Amino acid sequence: MQAQLRIRRFNPEKDKKPTWGEFTLDDVNKTDSVLDLLHRVKWEQDGTLTLRRSCAHGVCGSDAMRINGANALACKMLVQRLKKDDDTVTIQVEPILGMTVIKDLVVDMEPFMDHYRSVIPYFVNDEPVPEDGRERRQSIADRARFDDTTKCILCACCTSSCPSFWSNGRYVGPAAIVTAHRFIFDTRDTAAADRLQIMSDSFGVWRCRTVFNCTNACPREIEVTKAIAEVKVAITSGEV
Questions:
Q1: CATH assignment of the domain containing 149
Q2: What pTM value is reported for the model?
Q3: What is the pLDDT of residues 172-192, one digit of tens each?
């Protein structure tokens, strides 16, 4: 089939504002990903097209972008999910929202990573290791409490789909809260109180308005809004 791509372009060295670039690709297969098509545009038609990607298998989260108006990973979004007939497919690609565009589809992720780092995104336990010298053990039920939020790949699809984040970039955002959740409910960790204090900030978890955009945008199918609600309950109840 044929693909018509409309890509939002911006080069800060010469452009005052973003423009749209339009490209046509022939011999497109329904199992091609949007990333495959972007590669073809860059390699066959315009080498200046700039995008971020790494593993191309939905694990690294590098190629998050807006595809036909919704956040997704370009490597996981297949043509067959976007086409409306058998002969052609129209695809519009933009950078994710709420972040400064560096060039074309590449945005500045540093503010996002600052929020991530602010929630103490690592295991904390200074207590002596068990006498048998083995790992700190955990029951299956305790592990299940936070298993869902271990899946986050920091693609920023959730955070950049959040109206609260669009309105004020100081909001820590869904991805950071998901990361905090993963450690807050880990029974082996000892910094839950510190993270809950961080989440209690005016730009912490209470900025969430339960819009559910984050859950719908997550390529890993994490129940983001549910995790945010559980953090809110932990703060108000004082129990983890």
A1: 1.10.1060.10
A2: 0.93
A3: 999 999 999 999 999 999 999
